[in-house]
Design brief:
Elements (H helix, E strand, L loop, with lengths): L8 H9 L1 E4 L3 E6 L15 H13 L18 E7 L2 H13 L3 E8 L7 E11 L4 E4 L4 E12 L4 E7 L6 H8 L23 E9 L6 E5 L13
Parallel strand pairs: 3-9
Antiparallel strand pairs: 1-2, 2-3, 4-8, 4-9, 5-6, 5-7, 7-8, 9-10
């Protein structure tokens, strides 16, 4: 008798189809907007628990399944999400994140055209806990990112973003401050919401040296179907 809930056949197929990479130490998953990575005050089941149940069922594990969370994606964000299947991998991934040894690239669909084709933004951000929102302010912590305009559609602009710091809502706040709020992001100035309630920010790619095997890991998430007119290439 499993200690986890039973996953339906339909959900089992869906979860299995969204695993982008897996070995004995790591599981890299394609998160949808609206899903939470770790438990929060909503009480909704987080992906960490869903994936424990999935693995227990798939692999016939009778006891506890380990599923560590080295980094989180905001609930409305989609894309590449890394989980650790062993405590050793989790400890080493946490250390790599602290040292900046994990390279993450994001894609953001914005309603405004950026002022330059490519630029590095440096702002100072202050987090308002009560509002769960960040603001540009002189007294905040330094936030740096680089953006490049890589595609345009009839109404939107696709920016590729590299983060140099990891501040709360950093991409959302800095792009909005530049005059380019992310599509669907009402909290940071978008005029209308997306049908699924998410925002058009995708954790597109992650690259790092495997914490145990020492081989290169390079994983890319597909573009969501709702991003009309955006090419994968």
């Amino acid at each position: 008798m499993s200690v986890y809930r039973e996953i339906s056949a339909k959900e089992f197929m869906d979860l299995g189809g969204r695993i982008l990479y897996e070995d004995n130490h790591l599981l890299i998953f394609n998160k949808r907007s609206g899903e939470i990575v770790q438990g929060d005050k909503t009480g909704d089941e987080p992906l960490s628990e869903t994936l424990k149940a999935f693995i227990a069922q798939r692999d016939g594990k009778p006891g506890q399944v380990f599923m560590g969370v080295p980094h989180r994606l905001d609930r409305p964000v989609s894309g590449v999400c890394v989980f650790a299947k062993t405590s050793k991998a989790l400890e080493r991934l946490n250390e790599m994140l602290r040292k900046g040894e994990i390279h993450k690239t994001y894609w953001a669909l914005t309603a405004g055209r950026p002022p330059k084709q490519s630029d590095t933004l440096t702002d100072f951000l202050t987090r308002n806990e009560a509002q769960n929102k960040s603001y540009v302010s002189k007294n905040g912590k330094e936030a740096r990112l680089k953006y490049t305009l890589i595609q345009t559609t009839d109404r939107y602009f696709l920016l590729e973003v590299e983060l140099y710091t990891g501040r709360h809502h950093q991409i959302r706040c800095q792009l909005s401050h530049m005059g380019c709020p992310i599509k669907g992001d009402l909290k940071y100035g978008a005029k209308r919401s997306n049908p699924d309630g998410g925002i058009s920010l995708l954790a597109r790619n992650i690259q790092f040296i495997h914490p145990v095997k020492k081989t290169e890991v390079d994983v890319t998430a597909p573009v969501p179907q709702s991003w009309k007119g955006i090419k994968e290439g």
